[in-house]
Design brief:
Elements (H helix, E strand, L loop, with lengths): L55 H29 L2 E6 L6 H12 L4 E7 L4 H7 L5 E5 L8 H11 L6 E5 L16 E7 L6 H4 L1 H5 L1 E7 L4 H4 L3 H11 L4 E4 L8 H21 L1
Parallel strand pairs: 1-4, 1-5, 2-3, 2-4, 5-6, 6-7
The structure holds guanosine-5'-triphosphate and magnesium ion.
């Protein structure tokens, strides 16, 4: 189960999914259904999520167990990366913001810099195939019904990739602006990609992802003139939910802003490698 959104088909202890769920709604939310325009807010309980038929206490118990397990895998990944002086970026965004396109352009620009890629999608090997076409090693992880990568999946993929010293590990998460925010993969940081076609209010609507990210790449700026969008408002909204977030405006299509992004990456790798050497 995804402890962020409550979805997924993982079998839960003491909860047999062989039975059929009778979806009888008890309508005990304490509101009057006769009213229209009545905003509803779910997930405001202590668990931060609601799953029909499960108490908040049980949800917290399940979440604590799953997260503890995930964090152990993430810590192991972090230790491997630290030993190698490798810098790992977890690319997070909604579907189609341009993660793979940007990655392909980044890989080409980085030249012979050692790097590897883990691609997360529910289905298909399309993205790993696109990365491999650049000559970079890539592994596709299909999550099936899952809506995010977790520490365990990434650990397995890292073993297969045999990462080099002082390399980059790019992890392209499942296109989903919600759940990947909650899962530590052992990465050095999350980088959110937000394309200008998505709307300036997205950081406000999906704050967790942008709060969890160190950097936001505002992609597809080449399309801004056709979309009637306000790039300053995108940045202001990003900073409203995360005052410390760095923002770089880029276009994977025209190459605009790519220098700043590449400088950010190489600076981050240099600092990580120096830290490893000092330990
Ligand atoms: N105009 C323009 N189009 C772009 C840019 N970056 C990506 N695209 C296009 O956006 C579409 C989606 O790009 P992808 O790289 O597949 O996006 P993604 O985030 O990897 O998608 P998922 O992995 O499915 O979530 C493609 O048609 C790209 O060519 C850009 O900077 N400008
Ligand atoms: Mg992709």
């Amino acid at each position: 189960m995804c402890t962020v959104c409550g979805c997924g088909d993982a079998k839960l202890e003491g909860h047999d999914h062989g039975h059929s769920h009778a979806h009888t709604h008890t309508h005990d939310h304490g509101h009057d259904h006769g009213h229209h325009h009545h905003d509803m807010h779910f997930g405001t309980g202590p668990a931060g999520v609601e799953v029909p038929g499960m108490s908040q206490e049980r949800l917290i118990e399940i979440e604590t167990g799953i997260m503890a397990k995930n964090d152990r895998y993430a810590d192991a990944n972090r230790a491997v990366l630290a030993g190698l002086g490798a810098f790992a970026v977890n690319l997070v965004s909604s579907p189609g913001s341009g993660k793979t396109t940007l990655l392909c352009k980044t890989i080409e620009a980085l030249g012979d810099q050692p790097l590897a890629v883990i691609e997360g999608d529910q289905q298909t090997t399309n993205d790993a195939d696109r990365i491999r076409a650049t000559g970079a090693p890539a592994i596709q992880v299909n999550t099936g019904k899952g809506c995010h990568l977790d520490g365990h999946m990434v650990g397995h993929a890292m073993e297969h990739l045999k990462l080099a010293q002082n390399s980059f590990l790019f992890i392209e998460n499942v296109g989903n602006l919600v759940c990947p925010a909650g899962f530590d993969l052992g990465e050095d940081c999350k980088v959110a990609i937000l394309s200008v076609t998505e709307g300036e209010d997205k950081p406000l609507k999906y704050p967790d992802m942008f709060t969890a990210s160190r950097l936001a790449l505002l992609n597809k700026v080449d399309l801004a003139p056709y979309c009637d969008v306000d790039l300053d408002l995108y940045e202001a909204n990003l900073r409203r939910v995360n005052p410390g977030i760095e923002v770089i405006r880029v276009s994977a299509r025209t190459g605009e802003g790519m220098d700043s992004w590449l400088n950010w990456l190489t600076g981050s790798l240099t600092r990580k490698t120096a830290r490893t050497a000092a330990e």
